[in-house]
Amino acid sequence: MCAAIDMLASEQMFYGHSPPAGFLTDYTPPVRRPSKITTRGFSAPCLSVLKPVQLTLKEATRSCIKISNDKKNKRVVFADDRGYALEQVKFMTEPSHVPPYWALKIIASPPPERKPPPQTVVDLWEQRFSQPASDYLEFRRRITENCVSLENVIIKQNECAVDGTIKVKNLDFNKEVFVRASSDGWRTHEDTYCAFVESGPLSKNGVSNYDTFGFRLQLPIHSRRIDFCVCFRCKGNEYWDNKNGENYTIEKSSVRKSPAISCARINNGNSWTMKTNDGNTPYW
């Protein structure tokens, strides 16, 4: 008995504190064997070898561990980085460039189709002729030979009107320029007189060769077409520009689109350069 107490005391000195509980529970009492005679003249019992004890640490399985308790600086790491097992492991079978597999319910019920907004039918007035001044050579020929020519027109959809300019040859100071228009196929017609706008550049004699007149026509409400021509009266003579007998036509077209203003552009400051004996002279 005294030998066992001495052994426990030596074990306590070895650990520095009381042995763990597992060590005490697994302790096997010594088995007495035949005594041996020592040099001191008495016998000491032989003790059996103690069984080694293996301590196991049991921890609850968690997916991640919270390292810092500081609310401002939080850091989360995965459990496998700390040597613990993960709660759930999922293997992705799709390649990295393929989106994940969607549930059959989502695929079976596609989102409702969005219907395009209904198109609005808009009536727009459009000219059926090109701007006369766009072909400069033909434009100059008509003024030189016929003494008058329509220059440009602008269709103003919001105002339901047409603004235009006319070039005439300066044959005399007294001039009369008007536009004759019809909206019923020339069964009836109406004359609209033009207003003087400006004179062209002066020649060597100090007289302008061309004058510009402006006009405005109101587009018909109960018709989808208007035809017109230009007349220039000077010194008892009449000079007409009716597009070589075809007349100038503006029609209303139904377009399926958003309402918009469609008009021809005109630059009131257009200048034409003509070759003269004294060099390049701008023509207005």
Description:
- InterPro entries: CBM21_dom, CBM21_dom_sf, PP1_regulatory_subunit_3.
- One of its GO terms (cellular component) is protein phosphatase type 1 complex.
- One of its GO terms (molecular function) is protein phosphatase 1 binding.
- With 284 residues, the protein is mainly β.
- The chain has two domains: 43 residues, no CATH class; 162 residues, Sandwich (Immunoglobulin-like), CATH 2.60.40.
- Helices cover 12% and strands 33% of the residues.
- The protein has four helices and 16 strands.
- Strands 5, 8, 9, 12, 13 and 14 form a six-stranded antiparallel beta sheet that branches. It has a four-stranded antiparallel beta sheet with strand order 6-7-11-10.
- The longest helix has 14 residues.
- It is elongated.
- The chain starts with a helix and ends with a strand.
- 13% of the residues are buried.
- The C terminus is likely disordered.
Approximate shape: elongated
Average of pLDDT: 74
Structural class comes to mainly beta
- How many structural domains can be distinguished in the coordinates? 2
GO cellular component, one term: protein phosphatase type 1 complex
Organism: Euphydryas editha (Edith's checkerspot)
Protein name: CBM21 domain-containing protein
Pfam families: CBM_21
